Amino acid sequence: MTRGYLSFRSGITIPKLIIAVVSIFAVKILLLFLLNETTPRQTQHINATFANYHYEYQIFTHLSPDRCARTKLFVFLISALSSIDQRNVIRNTWAQEKHVKKSVVVFIVGRPINIEQDMALREEVLQYNDIIETTIPDTYNYTAFKVHPKGLLCP
After folding, report:
1. Domain assignments of the chain as residue spans, ordered by start
2. pLDDT average, residue stretch 17-38
3. Helix ranges (DSSP H) in the chain
4. pLDDT digit string, tens, across residues 81-130
5. How does the protein's chain sit in the membrane according to the entry (predicted)?
6. CA 126, CA 11: separation in Å to the nearest integer?
């Protein structure tokens, strides 16, 4: 005889499943909070005008100031937020420290649209310290705006 609630074939009951799902969600929220607290963020509001087009956006610099101090060349790579594999290939090949001694290679990405993207971005920022996040959409039409603030990021 059952106790008045459903169970799956594996023996997991609905209350246990709900507790597991809520626990996983709580851990995700806690991790996001901790990552946001430990991720250096400096918000800058930018007004950019190109020809007859004006656009306002924000950048969140995730670079430590010491990265700019030794810089002779600033390599600014526009990257889609979802292109982590491509960024890792670049980091592991020609953008390695031994190849770019007096250069800084950074990736500029758009803003995360969900909690999973945000958590993945925070982890990547903490691990590599080479991400600049913007509120600029990840489309070709906004490419010029993504390279516009270089002078503000690493004067």
Report:
1. 41-147
2. 64
3. 14-38, 65-69, 84-92, 115-128, 143-147, 150-153
4. 889 999 999 999 998 888 877 788 889 898 888 888 888 988 998 888 88
5. Single-pass type II membrane protein
6. 40
